[in-house]
Amino acid sequence: MFNLKEEKEKKISFKDVIKYKIDNFMSKGTISLISALFIASLFIIITSSLIITIFQIKPSRYANEMNFYEAFWESLMRTLDPGTMGADEGWGFRFIMLGVTMGGIFIISMLIGIITSGIESKLRELRRGRSKVIEKEHIVILGWSSHIYSMLNELDYLNTENKKYPIVILAEMDKIEMEDNIKIHTRLKNKTRIICRRGNPEDADDLSLISLNTSNSIVILSPEKENPDADVLKILLAITHNINRKKEPYHIIAEIREPKNEDAVKMIGGKETEVIVVGHFISKIFAQTSRQHGLSIILTDLLDHKGNEIYFKVEPMLHRRTFGEILFEFDESSVIGIFKKKKDIMLNPPPDTMYEANDQIIFITTDIKALKLTKHFKKNIDESSIIYQSTYDAKAKNYLILGWNWKGLNILDFIDKFSPKDSNIHIMSSYNEEDLKLDTIADEIKNIKINYKKVDITNKKVFSKIDLSIFHNIIILSYSDKFTLQEADSLTILTLLNLRNIINQKGLTIPITSEILDISNKDIIDIAKSADYVLSDKLVSYLLVQITRNKYLNDIFEEIFSHEGMEIYLKPAEDYVLPEMEVNFYTVLQSALKKGEVAFGYKIEELSFNPAKNYGIIINPKKSAMITFHKGDKIIVIAEN
Q: How far apart are CA 560 and CA 548, in angstroms?
């Protein structure tokens, strides 16, 4: 039994005190040990030099007295090189130099060992990714997920247009593992510098490693685990409430999974945080694509950095001009709105909306440098070819959903909002009906009736027994909750090929929207002639990267993907201009303007299944070029729902 009184009565020896102090000193690390050895060496050298100088113990080659500096040099040489004492003369001098040499051998040996150990320790620390990053204007990515690779590819591509921004990643992974995975899964043509650090993004001390205060933007990725939004909230708190944070606002993009957590994230992040609700984002794309064949291709074009993008620019030459006039001022760029005084995003505003000082034009083009005022082409509008009435199909729709994952409920919710009354959705998957949790949204569904059947959707015989002709659109959802990325894509592709084969045999034309997780499988989808496919992870990556470039793009895409406000539509070309008549796109633009819409592209129906021709979709066409539309072609417009 431990006796405190007896323990107190024990005397602590001088030896114990010395040992304790030595242990504490040595535990301080490499620099302390090197300093101690340096002091010990200096002590030996100075002591021997003093003895030699005072007692004039010297070799015979010194005719005169040996001063302290000469003695210091002789001792130093023997400390560093034991071979020096081979030429010594006189036993007194030899004896002193032997002591100096032995001390030098001992100290140098220890010094080499300590330096070697220190270097190894530093290398281990660097490999662990625990050193501080000193960068400016870098993009910080916190966390790790499957779509980080497509993000890195997009950011690398973006660096060709602007200054090169380094990318710093902080995640709870081994640094070497992160670097190896990046080398395998990315193709960084512009050799963007990527710096990986290992740490917990929720920990303020770990965040201090990556220089948040000098960063350009911060992206918080939703972890691939149960309840990922809780981790995102903690990371956001660690950033915004850090006592060492900068006074200026950060540019933060936070990715979350559940819509119910959006308000909490916005409350914590405030105005310096843009929130991306992944489930809502992908679900809205599915819902809108299910109504409009080819829409996913348009959205992908606008989101990625290849081809056309959405830009903002101040154009003083247009001061006091109306939006209706500005539309016709650019031959090779498509104006879609006005950003009023850096406050209000106005997509397709009323034609008489005035462009004023401090406003910016919102436009679609291949490059911001391409926005150039051109000759006014409005006089070339062919008024005789314009059609002023429009048709609207408000009939009930029938949808077929094959497969299932966590996004399914959101997709049903948005399809319901977009669909006419008495529409139907038939769901088929290998899930048990109770696993779909359809009862959780039953009270919110107003326009559609949901039917469910448990089947193996990869079995071709299943489709041969279904009357596919009743469906206006088919959606294939990935089994991403059950299988790995490649396994889920394999099942999706197998389902698509079997379904496409049956549809072709029956001579049907049904748009199929497929969810693909890995971009490398896109070529197989192209073979299956599926004009609509949603690359879930890649589209999320595109959106995150777009918002690192301009935070206000989040407002634009939120409105475009919403069931309220302005949206993108593909409408019959015969509602705008006479078919079989050669017109320029200024004429189409004028027709759309009369309907309160903005036209920015078109779709050629006969190319709908030709991937080499982008499935017939042309965005931001040259307005002065002539084109003839045929029945079935579509005009791409931004219009109010």
A: 19
Tell me the C-alpha to C-alpha distance, in Å, between residue 145 and each of 178, 282, 488, 493: 11, 16, 17, 23
H helix intervals, 192-333: 204-207, 228-240, 262-269, 278-291, 295-303, 323-326
Asked if 340 and 346 touch (Cβ cutoff 8 Å), the reply is yes
User: 140-178 as b/e, with b when 16 or more CB fall inside 10 Å?
Assistant: bbbbbbbbbbbbbbbbbbbbeeeeebbbbbbbebebeeb
- What angle (nearest 5°) sits at the alpha carbon of residue 608, between those of residues 607 and 614? 75
Q: Which helix (H) or strand (E) element contains residue 77?
A: helix 68-80
Q: Would you say 420 and 396 are in contact if contact means Cβ atoms under 8 Å apart? A: yes
**Which of 172, 233, 164 shows the shortest CA–CA distance to 198?**
172
d(CA 550, CA 316): 21
Quick: pLDDT tens for 237-295: 999 988 888 989 999 999 998 888 888 998 998 889 999 888 778 888 888 877 777 78
Q: CA 629, 633, 639: angle at the middle one, nearest 5? A: 105
- In a 10 Å sphere around its CB, with 0-12 CB exposed, 13-18 middle and 19+ buried, how is residue 222 labelled? buried
Is 351 in contact with 378 (CB distance < 8 Å)? no
Q: Which two tokens stand for residue 47?
A: 């002591």
Task: Give all domains of the chain, ordered by start, each with its CATH number.
Answer: 19-128 (1.10.287.70), 139-250 (3.40.50.720)
67 in the Ramachandran plot: left (φ > 0), alpha (ψ -120 to 50) or beta? beta
Segment among 93-102, 483-492, 620-629 with least mean pLDDT: 93-102
DSSP per-residue string spanning 493-508: HHHHHHHHHHHHHTT-
By C-alpha distance, which of 337, 286, 299 is closest to 640? 337
8 Å CB contact between 369 and 330: no
